[in-house]
TrEMBL record:
Catalyzes the aldol cleavage of 4-hydroxy-4-methyl-2-oxoglutarate (HMG) into 2 molecules of pyruvate. Also contains a secondary oxaloacetate (OAA) decarboxylase activity due to the common pyruvate enolate transition state formed following C-C bond cleavage in the retro-aldol and decarboxylation reactions. Pfam families: RraA-like. It comes from Phytohabitans kaempferiae. This is Putative 4-hydroxy-4-methyl-2-oxoglutarate aldolase. Homotrimer.
Length: 206
């Protein structure tokens, strides 16, 4: 059963960070490095509302915003298409009004300054001034691939300056516990380094 992402858990996820979560869950769930934040200081965490659209068309992105619930993160497979801005300032405002927590799109966006000014977290593959069509069918709520990683509706998506990681929808507590333990071990390594130890010894690399 999917667990809620309340504010305390969101704060923990932000402190831990996407990279630590990825490592702690066995180095799985990371989207490829081409998916980057428009604003490096932004952070997102929420449950995925998945969207599948044809390259260069954003009709079903509008459908997804209409279907979104507060706290959702829109995760869009736009087929990696870089030569159109399938998301812009109008959709950003609509999403904010719907309580959407952020966007991850394997494709392009535009109106960057306006999006950043609105404080809306967007992670994308490209920025393009070109427009899209709005006449091709897509799907909202199916399993997709985004940034080379499978995403199912209800999976947890965490994004920050390091990248985006996906946690299986029913493993939030498990992922947090593992990441907290990894953080604890790394704190021990840092303390040992400050006392003169070498990474070769601490990590068994001799």
């Amino acid at each position: 059963m999917n667990e809620p992402i309340d504010e305390p858990r969101r704060a923990i996820l932000r402190r831990l960070g996407a990279a630590t979560i990825y490592e702690a869950q066995g180095q799985v769930g990371a989207m490829d490095s081409g998916i980057k934040s428009l604003d490096p200081s932004s952070f997102l965490a929420g449950r995925a509302l998945t969207v599948d659209v044809p390259p260069g068309d954003n009709l079903f992105i509008h459908h997804a915003v209409a279907a979104a619930r507060p706290g959702d993160v829109l995760v869009i497979d736009a087929k990696g298409y870089r030569e159109a801005g399938a998301w812009g300032d109008v959709l950003t405002l609509a999403a904010r009004c719907a309580g959407v927590a952020g966007l991850v799109i394997d494709g392009g966006v535009r109106d960057v300054d306006s999006i950043v000014a609105m404080g809306f977290p967007v992670f994308c593959r490209a920025v393009s001034i070109k427009g899209t069509t709005k006449n091709q069918a897509g799907e909202v709520g199916g399993q997709i691939s985004c940034g080379g990683t499978p995403v199912r509706p209800g999976d947890i998506v965490v994004g920050d300056r390091d990248g985006v990681v996906v946690i299986l929808g029913d493993r939030l507590t498990e992922a947090i516990d593992a990441a907290v333990e990894r953080e604890r071990k790394e704190d021990g390594i840092r303390a040992a380094l400050e006392s003169g130890a070498l990474t070769l010894d601490l990590l068994g690399l001799r």
